[in-house]
Amino acid sequence: MFVLGAALPYFFNKNIKFFTTLDNVMTGRFSMGHYYINKYGISLFGHPIANIIYLKKIGPYLIYQLVDSAYIRILLQYGLVVYLIIFIALFFRCLQLASKNLVFELCIIVSILVCSFFERTTYNVFIFSTLLVLFINTETLQSNNNTSGIN
């Protein structure tokens, strides 16, 4: 998920039917991500990006682009180094939870990864508190699971 969240917008090509169909299913998120990647570029340590770019005004309506993917926001705003650190940390956390058979917690993380395609705030613990599941003590959870049987 983490790799696809950045790779699909990066390689997006409106002339390829697969990409346009997938972009339509994802309500234009890949084309918006591609627009931001082309406008700002990917750097090692990131740079500030605008939340919304206004393209034009048609009557009372504004036509705009916005980064609506946490993956693209992290990659552009914080850079490739931070993006890779987060990816590696999530990967090892998922391996740790899977090895301890903590399926519920693993499902929460997978749900967060899916949600990150559609929400730009899922990387922020203060706004999206479900991320706190990444910091739970798995030893405590495992001992609680072992002692919760019927006596």
UniProtKB/TrEMBL annotation:
The protein, known as: Oligosaccharide repeat unit polymerase
Keywords assigned: Membrane, Transmembrane, Transmembrane helix
TM regions (residue ranges): 36-55, 75-95, 102-119
Organism field: Sporolactobacillus putidus
